[in-house]
Every structure is written in C-alpha cells, then in structure tokens.
Fold this sequence. Notes:
- The chain is built from 9 helices and 15 strands.
- The protein is α/β, with parallel strands linked by helices.
- It has 2 domains: 169 residues, Rossmann fold; 158 residues, D-Amino Acid Oxidase, Chain A, domain 2.
- Strands 3, 4, 5, 8, 9, 10, 11, 12 and 13 form a 9-stranded mixed beta sheet that branches. A 6-stranded mixed beta sheet has the order 6-2-1-7-15-14.
- β9 and β10 form a beta hairpin.
- Pfam families: DAO (PF01266).
Amino acid sequence: MASISSSQDVIIVGSGVIGLTTACTLQRRLPNVRSITVVASEFPSPSPMIADSPRYSQALPISADYASMWAGAHYRPIPHLPASHPRYGSLTSQQQGFQSQLANEYCLATHTARIMKHLARATPEAGIEIMPGIEYLETPPPENIALKSGDVYAGDDDHFRVYTSAEMEALNKRDAHDGTGQIKWACEYETYVVNVHIYCAWLLQQFLQGGGKTAQKHLNSIGEALQAVPEAACPIIVNCSGTGLWDDPKIKVIRGQTVLVRNQYHSTITRQCADGTWSFLIPRPLGGGTIVGGTKQVSDSETCGRPKERQTLLENAVKYFPDFVSAPKDFDVVQDNVGRRPWREGGMRIEMDELKQDGVKLPVVHAYGAGGRGYELSWGAAEQVCELVGRYSRLQSRL
Length: 399
Ligand SMILES: Cc1cc2nc3c(=O)[nH]c(=O)nc-3n(C[C@H](O)[C@H](O)[C@H](O)COP(=O)(O)OP(=O)(O)OC[C@H]3O[C@@H](n4cnc5c(N)ncnc54)[C@H](O)[C@@H]3O)c2cc1C
Ligand SMILES: *[C@@H]1O[C@H](CO)[C@@H](O)[C@H](O)[C@H]1NC(C)=O
C-alpha cells in the first residue's frame, strides 16, 4: 500500500466523476493522510426526473461546464491497433501516438469496468447497471474489423460477439425503406451504464462517510484552493477541475446535446453513421429514463438546447432503433441536456507538477482532460493519481 505522511493534507479541486473517484480512492489507499478536502464550485445535483421534489426545486441550475452531470453515461470501448499488428508499421508517427494513447486508455477502461461491474452487483443503489451494449457502424475502422467473436472488447467476461453478415443484412433490409446507410460492422457485449446523478451523489456520500470534507468555492487559480482550506498543512493539490481553470492550450471543449426522456430502453446502443453523426440510447439505471443522443460539436459554446437538434435526435432514434418508440411524439421528453466534454489533445493529463506560490513550492497532481470518457476511465485514472501522490509524499519524507 502507498503511504503518506500523517501530517499531510490533500486538497482535490473538482467534484466531477474524476475528483470524486480520486477522493474515494485516496481515502482508501492512503489511510494515513491527515485530511482530504474536495473544493469545487459545483457539487452533484439530483436528477431532473425528480423535478417536483423540494430538494430539486431549491437546487441551483448546473452549468454546461460541469460535464459529469451531462454524461450518458455508458462504457463504449474504443479499440486500438496493437504495436504487434502488421498495419502498425505503416502508420505515421502521429497515428502511432494516438494508438498508444488508446492502448493506455484501454488499460484504464478495463480496470474501471471491473470496479464498476463489481459495484453494480454489490451496491445497486450506487446507480450502475450491467447491461448489453450494441454497436452499429457504417464505416468501421480497421481496429474493429480485426476483432473476432470471443475477443476481449470491454473487459473480462464481456461475451463479445461480432454480428454475422446475415444478421447485418437483416438489419439493413429492415432499415432500407428509410433511406438509411448500410451497417458494415456490428457487435454486442456486456457493459455497464451509470445514472450520473445517483452515482456521483453516492461517491460523494462514501467520501463524506469516510471522513472526507468539502468546501464550495469558485477558484480563480489552483493556488486559491489553499484559502478554502486554511488549516491545511503541507498540502498536496489534485487538479480535477475539468475545464474550469483552463489555461492548457491542448484543451478543447466538445459540445454535446442529448435529450432526456422518461421512456426506459433495455440496452445501450450506438449507431455511427457514414456522415460522421451519431445516434445512441443510454438508459439510466433506477428509473432515470433514457438519454437519446447525441451531438459532438467542437468549440461550440451554445449552452442552450437547440430545438432543431432535439427533433433530429428523436427522429433518428425512431429510425435507427425501431423497437423503442414508433414516432418522435411518443417520447416523453424531460429536457434537453447540453454539456461540454473536457477534451484534451493527447488524452488525459495525469502528471505531477510543482507550482510556485508566494515563493513556496506547491505540489500539484493534474488529472483532467477525460473528454467523452470520464466515467469509463475514472477508477483507472484515480489509481494513477494515488500512485503519484503516494510517491511524492514518500520522496518528501526522505528529504
Ligand atoms: C453529452 C455528453 C455525454 C457523455 N457521455 C459519456 C459517457 O457515456 N461515458 C463517459 O465515460 N463519459 C461521458 N461523457 C464525458 C464525461 O462527462 C466527462 O469526461 C467527465 O464528466 C469529466 O469529469 P471531470 O471530473 O474531469 O470534470 P467535470 O465533471 O467537469 O467536473 C469539474 C469539477 O471541477 C469544478 N471546478 C472547475 N473549475 C473550477 C473553479 N475554477 N473553481 C472551483 N471549482 C471548479 C467544477 O465545479 C466541478 O466540480 C459525456 C459528456 C457529455 C457532455
Ligand atoms: C488545472 O486544470 C486546468 C483545466 O481545468 C488546466 O487548464 C490547468 O493547466 C491546470 N493547472 C493549473 C495550474 O491550473
């Protein structure tokens, strides 16, 4: 087990899925730490499905920048080309770099999947559910085509299966009258989905029950976190601020508009169309309705839902997933959701850093830039942060 000096305090900036998972992991893995405080401007809010409850009507609206409240959220793996693959050598060095990022994310995602599935079984009240994942691709990349039924796709025991050409033909025939594109690759596997409101509140509750502290404060810089926890001794700060303290030129936000409906679907299903658009359904466990998605709009700063986008999303869901509802008017719409994915070129930054604050060195561990994958990478990322915090603290204690 990693150790930390008992005179040290940890301050985590950010109460999104990355900050909260990190808080719970540090608490468990570094029991000697003096205190852990989560400082954030926004904390988990209840689901809009319970809008008539007094707690909700008193809650402040959440901003589009608090990505964790706007995610689906499901786990949909992104396969990578291993360095041993015959095609790997012909990739440009930039493409190889991207493949190694995906390989790294694959490790984080499968580690996370093991924990999420365990939580789904052991603590269903946490809002995670194991469920079939289905994908229809119109232009599959070589990484997908290389996969065979029985391969590990989403993690151990995922029952991964590639559709036969006869199955795809039947789907394409079914869709033909809509002028829909052709499915060229499809698969099915076991995955998990998350009710983001319930899950993040559950993480926060675990943390508080374990003795964690919180402070609500908007910071203009990472260093201001010290003012929120004035009693902190030899603090280590963990930067899980998503995009809220944005000065990293590698960050781009990607707008996502989805529709939350009360209708409950039975699987998480994604169609990737040839024109680059996506259509997906992500059921939210414990009666949280279904997310009908979704757009991916780079650097689009509109935070309101666009009615035209809602219409397109609902129409596509009817067209592509005909066993859900038979017409857009049959959807019982709760609201449009608009959130911003904290995307970062090169992937998440999980790194030790040292800032100068009033002439004093302030250790900071960064953990931001999860893009559209924050939930699926969360436990793996938290584990790496924990390693860095533990290693830093051991070094300090030897000086
Ligand atoms: C439409 C959509 C669909 C998505 N679907 C999925 C999915 O299916 N699966 C998946 O894994 N991921 C999905 N994501 C991505 C996921 O939501 C993000 O990757 C994840 O939420 C990032 O979490 P985070 O903790 O890094 O940041 P955030 O959730 O943005 O949290 C940031 C925290 O930092 C605090 N903060 C920021 N700045 C300051 C400041 N200056 N002062 C004080 N506090 C501050 C905020 O208040 C907040 O508490 C989706 C995202 C969107 C938008
Ligand atoms: C902290 O996180 C933000 C993203 O919100 C990033 O842009 C910034 O570079 C990080 N570091 C500091 C010192 O704020």
